[in-house]
Amino acid sequence: MPSHPRDALRAWFLGPRAENAELLERLVVEALRDHVFWRRNYHPEDGLAIRETDKRQEGYEENVATLTQELMGLLAELKRDVPFFSGRYKGHMVGEQTIASQIGYFATMLYNPNNIAVEISPVTTRLEREVAEQLARMIGYDPSRSWGHLTSGGTVANFEALWLARSVRYLPVAAAGAAAELGLELPVRLPGGTSASIVDLPLWELLNVTNHDTLDLWDRLWQSAPRPDVQRALANHSLAAIGYQEYSRRLALDYGDPLPAGVVLVAATAHYSWEKIARALGIGSNQVVHVPLDHHYRMDPDALWEQVSALARRRNPILALVSVCGTTEESAVDRLDQVLQVRSRTERELGATFHIHSDACYGGYAAAVTRRADGTRRTAAEIRRSVEADWPSDDWVTAVEALGEADSVTVDPHKLGYVPYAAGAILVRDGRTRHLVATDPPYLSPTEGSASDGERFLGRYILEGSKPGAAAAAVWLSHKVIPLDERGYGYLIERTVAGALRFHAALATADLSPFRVVMLPVPDINIVCYVLCHPSLATLRAVNDFNERVYTRMSLARNDGSPEYIITRTRLRSPAYDGAVDPILAGLAVGSVEEWKAGGAEGLVVLRSTIMDPFLAAPSPAPDHVRGFLGALRRACAEVLGKGASA
Ligand SMILES: Cc1ncc(COP(=O)(O)O)c(C=O)c1O
Question: How far apart, in whole angstroms, are the C-alpha atoms of residue 500 and residue 150?
């Protein structure tokens, strides 16, 4: 009989009390010794650069003493770091790392491969490609058609997603210019189903060719003329070569049609990196347009349709739409399936289209919950039986399954993948997309004839340069030990959700009198948000001030010793959260929507606990960190009010 992942879970982590210390120590020593043997057996005829007699020299001994002493200092300092491993840490989206990822990272770090090019990472570039394929399979992409790689994190992965999306959107414009220059007849399909020669199309239609048809067009262009000619002609007409300033001027001149600036539609909950990215790409943060939310903090598909149709009617290009799977603040999962339906309708009824990206940096690994060991999908009912709770809903499963239909998805192993920083990932559904941003440096180009090395030369297609092979090995080994399905990550995430549900229910029903807690909805994954209040707090500002002080007492910002439990907080602001926060404001019965809006940047302070601890749902025999937390919260509230929150 196959073992239950319940037992394996106890072997996945070092443990809050370092219960698996012997295991990790054995593996660290094994990896180190093995590396030492490698060095000793590599051209043993080379002799020694450091002799035993050198080690008796004063300068040598002095240096060893300094190293040892400074290390002791660093180790002492690190005790002030954040105890992510503890059930007492209920703060940001980071928890323990798997032993597999720790040892994978450590072992590979000794070799220090650089995954920018196969030449300097023959092993770990292969592992990175495997990891990308595993993640692709998990979210529902066909690994033989998709492409992806690891990044230093979600921000860079998202950056690449928008960079790729914009490159696809503008390609038909460049292709039209190139085709005219080379005298080519290039037919292209339009969203309505008709076909036209690319040189005859107006700018609006060029900017509304579907991703798939754009990539077909790209293939046809290269087949239609000699390579160097296409290369030169594309450079004469591409945004990447010419740059926004000159490009806009030229398009207005060539097409006599200065379309409004292209926008990026993002869920109002979108991570702040999107604003940063729009600025860095020269799109401009004013072009980042928020799509309103429903009361569950998910993108509202009806509001999306309204916005898209208004934009299309004004002939305002949409460079991309960013939906979120696992929002930073609430872990909300957008109804991606409905977002995709909005795009289909846009193509059918309005002849317009846009790239759909899912920012699943946080929630992407939750797709493992939907996978059986053989790769087929579990039903929502099957998962609910396993979690022993009313989670997930059928809609949640449909939304997560829709990840496979998004044009690009970002998923961060260093979040719900429980691996060390730095490990983000970007996946694109159609692997051809990567060629649109390729750059070849002379000193790293693969040798003639090594086509597969060329494909594996990551530096050609990505934003970053040097990148740690150790990070790829860490993720790879973790996926080997903890598979991306119900036996591995699926089970791990189920346990954290079960913990979050227990935590949410306990807070919602806790008797904290005279304090009261107003809960945000039951989370889609495992981030629980709540607001505290007290009868003496008569204004929204007073409630905010009170919650801010409770947060300070329960965070590392506290300067009188370590907090019993660690939480974090966020501020829900207008206009991003318009409508979504109404039930919370009503529950508080303090202030009004108008007061909240007038508060501007102050917003509504919301306490936030990310539950990464897989043992929280069934703590026995470990300490019960739900009961413990409630006691600590009660004490923090009393202390804060005792110190006089401004009422
Ligand atoms: C939804 C989402 N996207 C992107 C990011 C950015 O990720 P990183 O901090 O790894 O750059 C985060 C980080 O919290 C996030 O929650």
Answer: 29
